[in-house]
Each structure stands twice: as C-alpha cells, then as structure tokens.
Amino acid sequence: MNQEGVVRQVVAELKRVREEKHISQRELANLTNLSQAGIAHMELGNTTPTLLFLLSVADALEVRLHEVIERASTNIVE
To answer: CA 33 to CA 67: how far, in whole Å?
Structure first.
C-alpha cells in the first residue's frame, strides 16, 4: 500500500474514534483550534493532513497517534 493509502487508514481510524466518543466535527474543531471544514475535508479524503494536524486531532480525542497508526495498519491489506 502506498503512503496515501496509509494516511487514509489513519484518518479513518481517527474518524472512528471521534464517532465512538460522540464528538461532532464542530466540537473537534473547537477542541483543536482547527476549522470544521478542514476536519471534514480530511475525513472525506479531499486533503492530505499534515503530521501536526493528525497530532492535534489525536490529542483532542485523547488517543496516542502511534496507537492509531498501529490500529490502522492492522486494517491495511497489502
């Protein structure tokens, strides 16, 4: 799988965590000082998030990014 595919899996895992915690995109935007539109674009795959963006989202969701990456990597089929 290419780098873009890995990033998509990480974003999908962050979205899953967000939804599991019943946090809306707007609430996440407020927690991270990021825009709701930016979060939506990230989740839709319209933009490739930066590492700082991913770290901000993971921190706001109270998860460790490396754990999200590990979980996402188990969903990747070569």
So the answer is: 23
Q: Residue 1: which pLDDT band, with cuts at 50, 70 and 90? A: low
Burial class (CB in 10 A: 0-12, 13-18, 19+), 11: buried
Task: Assess contact for 54 and 14: CB atoms under 8 A.
Answer: yes
Q: Mean pLDDT score of the chain, rounded to an integer?
A: 91
Q: What is the DSSP letter of 46?
A: S
Kindly state the tokens that stand for 34: 């990021």
Whole-angstrom Cα distance, residue 35 to residue 38?
5
Residue 78 tokens read as 């070569």
Judged by DSSP in three states, 34 sits in: coil
